[in-house]
Amino acid sequence: MAEAARFRKSIGTKNESSLHKTLKFRYTGSGGKSEVEVGEYVADGVRKDGEYIEVQTGSFKPLKNKIKDFASRGKVRIIHPIAVNSKIEVFDTRGKLLYRRKSPVHGNLWSLFDALLYAPELPLIKNVSIEVVLADITEKRVKDGKGAWRRKGISKLDKELSVYHESILFAKKSDFMRFIPFKKGENFTVTTHAKKANIKRNISQKALYTLFKMKVIKRIGKKGNAWVYMV
Description:
The protein is α+β, with helices and mostly antiparallel strands. The chain contains six helices and ten strands; from the N terminus they run ααβββαββαβββααββ.
């Protein structure tokens, strides 16, 4: 039992995943400090130059008040990892690897809008930038009979960064124009945007709604039931 307990702790039973910890230290950098109390909040890191680092693997919605507070004090960079490729490793309760498999889900830069959808105002706040990290991620699980029924009792334990591919920084509103494959003055709808950007319609809907809220694009009317947008 002691061996099993050590195994569970070693692969991430704490709140902070290995993925989160790796990115926190990577972006806080040499000379920076991690887990710093800032007012009523705790920053994941503060760089040597004073920039606040906040690693967020999920939706940005819970960050709204925290980021506004940090931004009132100085520069803030939100680090958001996206899994380009995912691998799942399943262990027994003693730490023995039972099997590993590749996940059929692949993320890309458009996945950013899954996180931004409910907090589109964050990139508009002065001093705030977002850095997207495209990486391969390994998810570790344990077959302990305590997980959700859809995973057949297998519990999630940890996530690790396996391969760091690249990062893309969004420091100003115009940086988000890379998601709009139209020239200034051209009109487009979700349908035409999805076709030209070569993405699924539901992804285009999330992106255009978010970019509209960010004032990167504007609505100029409707074509039938569809909103018409323009840069």
